[in-house]
TrEMBL record:
Designated name of the protein: Glyoxylate reductase/hydroxypyruvate reductase
PANTHER family with a match to the protein in the record: 2-HYDROXYACID DEHYDROGENASE-RELATED, 2-KETOGLUCONATE REDUCTASE
Transcription recorded as keyword: no
InterPro entries assigned: D-isomer_2-hydroxyacid_DH, D-isomer_2_OHA_DH_cat_dom, D-isomer_DH_NAD-bd, NAD(P)-bd_dom_sf
Xref: CDD domains: GDH
A single cellular component GO annotation: cytosol
Domain D-isomer specific 2-hydroxyacid dehydrogenase catalytic, first and last residues per copy: 50-353
């Protein structure tokens, strides 16, 4: 059944890895031994696919947080892995202390800012994430937000469907991204994939990153390194944020940075809401300091319904859709399953996140 579930998965190039791990896992498993996995919620409506649940259930007894909380004494020694789907369950010192045989936490998505990696590692537990599954769809979404904002697609839709619309306006204009300058803050895998896409749209590309990319990478997308963030902010028509959230990137874009941007510029955020000082952003958008913002992430998510960002005409907000494609979600699940199988078998954990 597990292998059938693998075959159903559309991500063909992962079959072998999954199968190998499955086979080696069996070799290390005692007859009838079942490592337990703590899983927060299962069921299609929560985005956990039934075929992957079947696959997990072949190897693990799945325990929900509710079951665990109700029967801690019996279960705590048996649990070897945590399947963390969209930041749940919350992993804190109390939970780690109550799971002495925990080996691995498989986290969906790339961001691990919700995990205390040092604390987890001090318990001898490994963490894995799913960076490759999310990078293409997140970069796509960055482009989609940039285009939607530049071409006023959301406003256009509202006009097209409004019962008050009698005729379409010839003077209702947006901007072209072709020939414009895109500043990419955070040139990791996602940032680089944004650059590849922007290159195809014939944009000029500036980037700012902790480390400069090698010359071949820069040349392949025509990206110019800006060691100083100010230079990127001053020179860009669109600024996209694709950094990890860390103490260094918290409120990286505040009032001072927004004031350095062109009054015609648009800020796009596909990283984490906390990278932007939202009060400063609201002021900048209200006062014409920058032209517009397109945000896939906010702080908190969702924003309170009376939050100013929800009521500004020059803002587009999507509900954290970066990895929200069926292809990405399947691949995330598969990668998590692979990491759990490896972690409980004492094999090197694919996509391990190091402290
Ligand atoms: O937010 C999405 C992720 O962390 O992958």
């Amino acid at each position: 059944m597990g292998f059938m579930a693998l075959q159903k998965c559309p991500i063909a190039n992962c079959h072998l890895l999954g199968w190998q791990l499955e086979a080696s896992f069996h070799e290390t498993m005692e007859e009838n031994e079942h490592p337990y996995t703590l899983i927060n919620v299962i069921g299609g409506t929560n985005g956990v696919y039934e075929d992957h649940v079947e696959f997990l259930e072949k190897h693990f007894k799945l325990i929900t947080m509710k079951e665990f909380t109700e029967n801690k004494q019996d279960l705590s020694h048996k649990i070897k892995a945590i399947f963390m789907w969209f930041h749940k369950p919350v992993v804190d010192r109390d939970l780690l202390q109550s799971l002495p045989n925990l080996k691995v936490i498989a986290n969906c998505g790339v961001g691990v800012d919700h995990l205390d990696l040092k604390l987890i590692s001090s318990f001898g537990v490994k963490v894995a994430n799913t960076p490759f599954a999310v990078s293409n769809p997140t970069a796509d979404l960055g482009m989609a937000l940039m285009l939607a904002s530049a071409r006023r697609i959301v406003e256009g839709h509202q006009i097209a469907v409004s019962p008050d619309t009698k005729c379409f306006m010839a003077d209702w204009l947006g901007e072209e991204i072709n020939g414009a300058t895109l500043g990419i803050i955070g040139m990791g895998t996602i940032g680089y994939k944004v650059a590849q896409r922007a290159r195809a749209f014939e944009m000029n590309i500036l980037y700012h990153n902790r480390n400069r990319r090698n010359e071949a990478d820069e040349q392949a997308v025509g990206a110019v390194y800006c060691p100083k963030l100010e230079d990127l902010l001053q020179g860009s028509d669109f600024v996209i944020l694709s950094v990890n959230l860390s103490p260094q990137t918290q409120k990286l874009i505040g009032r001072k940075e927004l004031e350095l941007m062109k009054p015609t510029a648009t800020l796009i955020n596909i990283s984490r809401g906390q990278v932007v000082d939202q009060d400063a952003l609201v002021n900048a958008l209200k006062n014409g300091v920058i032209k517009a913002a397109a945000l896939d992430v906010t702080y908190p998510e969702p924003l309170p319904r009376d939050h100013a960002l929800l009521h500004l005409k020059n803002v587009i907000i999507t509900p954290h859709l970066g990895s929200a494609t069926s292809k990405a979600r399947h691949l995330m699940m598969r990668n998590m399953v692979e990491s759990i199988l490896a972690g409980v078998s004492g094999l090197p954990v694919p996509n391990e996140v190091h402290v």
